[in-house]
Amino acid sequence: MAAKAVHLAHRTHWVDFDDEDIPWLAGQEFFRLWRDRCGDRDFPMRADFTPMELKRWLPHVVLLDYLPEKQDCSVRLVGTAIAELFPRDPTGMLIRDLHNGDQTMLGLQAVVDWRLPIMAKELTIEWADRSHRVFDSVNLPLSRNGDAIDMLLILINLRPPQL
């Protein structure tokens, strides 16, 4: 199956993708684990994963709680490699309160609304006191009850700076 491009907030995102469409090996393996945990469901439950099996990816993982009443997400967990990008620890903060949060939330809201994983490739993020960084992400829906998407599991690939 060929990945389909969709445009959200002036950025290209990808839906209906397979693991080989993901541009980094760890992302491919992470997506295969998520897909395996889906079983015959559209998306897995949070309880389908153990911390030990996610351990190798944790430095690059972000776990968000989706707050439907606010159409926002609260940051539950941020891996150490990702946390270093922020001027302060974003745990507990709302996505919309972060730099470019409204734009970021458009892509995350699409995961919830479409009930599909979404991949982003070659996005640039700029913080006021940081240099440009290019990254890819795989944004995956999760559920506590097996029906409503109330969490997002995200793996981020930070690309090395281009010289």
Automatic annotation (TrEMBL):
InterPro entries: DUF1457. It comes from the Bacteria. It holds the Pfam family PAS_5. This is PAS domain-containing protein. It comes from Gimibacter soli.
